[in-house]
Structure formats: structure tokens, C-alpha cells
Amino acid sequence: MPEPPHPFDRRFLLVTGKGGVGKSTVTAMLALRSAQQGHKTLVMELNTQPRVAELLGHEAAGPEVTCVERNLWLVNIDPSRALEEYAVMKLRFRALYKLVFENPVMQSLVRFVPGLNDLLMLGKAFNHERETDEDGGPAWDRILIDAPATGHGITFFRLPKIIRDAVPAGNMHRETAEMWALLTDPQRTAVHLVALPEELPVRETTELHAHLRDLGLPLGHLFLNMVPPPLLDATTRADFDRLRSRPADARLGLLWDITQVRLGREAQATGYAEELSALRLPQVTLPMQYSPTFGRPQIEALLGALPAS
Ligand SMILES: Nc1ncnc2c1ncn2[C@@H]1O[C@H](COP(=O)(O)OP(=O)(O)OP(=O)(O)O)[C@@H](O)[C@H]1O
Ligand SMILES: [Mg+2]
Description:
By secondary structure, the protein is of the alpha/beta class. It has a single domain, classed as Rossmann fold (3-Layer(aba) Sandwich), CATH 3.40.50.300. The protein is 49% helix and 16% strand. It contains twelve helices and eight strands. The protein has helices spanning 23-36, 51-55, 79-91, 94-101, 104-112, 116-130, 152-166, 171-183, 199-215, 234-242, 250-276, 296-302, and strands at residues 12-17, 41-46, 66-69, 72-77, 142-146, 189-195, 219-227, 283-287. Helix 7 packs across helix 8. It is elongated and about 80 Å long. The model has no long low-confidence stretch (mean pLDDT 87). Magnesium ion (MG) is lined by residues 23-24, 48, 51, 146.
């Protein structure tokens, strides 16, 4: 029998979904598990609040690749630095960079070129994928990218293709063509989706899935996050279901109401999970962590939901 698919089947992993659904949470979980299993893991956050570092209890990472714990490195990509690096690398001339990009007129122009920042950030990710160690093997066993939220996310993913098609030849064409080849390579890349068991996020996930599939991007797992775990064990649930009406006692009545609400949420989440199964992606259910704070202990608790590898 073939092995069931695993979120770590590919080396270049992007995590995306609607705003606030848990993309950084999923990136942090995967990164932690990967590092714990002894794989050299690089997490890239793209010009956002450096959330992954915070979730794992580390100092925020800057634009330098920083080792934060055994086998785990973080980097937060700063587009203006990436632009300078790119210009210096490609134009091979810092003075020219300064002349071109530190000129205020050019700076405001660059700000208005749609998607330039995204492309630069994706370019950095692409370069890390190609990085080699002293033996000539890949420098990173796994690269995890906390990608931008949906909407913005689709443009982000399409960008290399748009530029490849718009620029007929030369360095830019070649680079973006290779980037696009990486993004669409099912041997190397997977795009993981994160969703919540609620109407709007489910609808958006379905749309995002269709867009990414139409673009030809290899989809990985679907992480359904903040799913209320069963409140009652099977026996208690059977007892509860035998109570046919709300108890007359005021306090018991209140408990009945609360339990009904919670069971309703559970049933709703099950319904959404079934709806999302139409996407035919392997699903991982991440239980809601009922805790006043959310950080490393919650990330560690969520690791239990990942399939064994
Ligand atoms: N399984 C969970 N249980 C409880 N709370 C959670 C869970 N997953 C995420 N959260 C809460 O939701 C918040 C948002 O999660 P996260 O930062 O991972 O989302 P995001 O998709 O990366 O957001 P953004 O779009 O802003 O980057 C977390 O800070 C945490 O408080
Ligand atoms: Mg985030």
C-alpha cells in the first residue's frame, strides 16, 4: 500500500490561507516538528510581523538568517534589503544601486510597482532553495514560508509567471521562469492551506484552492484549525442525548444550554470538514486550544495532531 501523504513530503513548503486563520501557527508547528526530527529547517516570514519567532518563544528574527534552536533557523525578509542585495548581485555595482534605488524619485516609483516587494521576497526564498552546503548538497532540508494571506496571496503566487511572460528574455525572464518552475514542481513544492470551520473561511478556502489548482501549483495538506474538540466522552454524550428536554433546575438548565451551544459548534465543524473534503486534500484537524495565552506550549500541544512521520 502506498504511504499516506505527509506535510513533509516536499522540501519547499508554503503555508497560506485567509487572514488570522493560523498560517503562522501551522508554520511554527511544522518548523518545530521538522527541527525536532533532526532536519535543518529554515522558516521565512515575508515582511510581516515576525509571528513565528514569537509563537515559538524566540526573539524576533531580522533579515539575517538566525539559528534560534537546534536545527531551526528563522529569517524575516525585508524587501528594501532584498532589493539592494538583488541589485548589487545582478548589477554587480553598489554605486549604481545607490544611484538608482536611493534616489527619492526612484524610491517612490519602486513603491508603486505592484508586486515588486513580493517578487523580491519570493526571489530570496528561491535563492535559499538553491543554496548548497560545503558538500554541494542542499543547505536546507526544509524551507517553510509563512506566505501572505489570501487575496494578496494569489497575486503573490502568480507573480513569477506574470513577469516570466511579460519579460521576453534576459536575466529577469530566466530567474522568474526558474522560480515558476520551482513553485509548480510537485516533486519539490507543496502549498499547504489553512482554514477555520466557519462559513466565510471555508468559502474563501474553496476559492483559493480553485485558483491555486488552476495556476498549476501543487497543493499539500489542508489544516482545519481551531476545531472544537469533543466536549463529552462517548458515554457522557449518550447520557446527555437521553435527556430529552432542558432540566427545570436553573443551574442544570444553564449547563444544558452551554452544552447545547458547544455540541452545535462541534457538529458545525464536522459539517465544514466534510464540505472541505470535496477539495480532496489530506486534512489535518487542529483542535482549539482553550487557553488565555497562545505560545510555545500551545504549539507543542498541537504537534500531537500531525501525522507521524
Ligand atoms: N488552534 C488554536 N487554538 C486557539 N487559538 C488559536 C489556534 N490557532 C491560532 N489561534 C489564535 O489565533 C491567532 C492567529 O493565529 P496566527 O497568527 O497563526 O494566524 P495567521 O493566519 O498567521 O494570521 P495573519 O493573517 O495575521 O498572519 C493566534 O495568535 C492565536 O491566538
Ligand atoms: Mg501570520
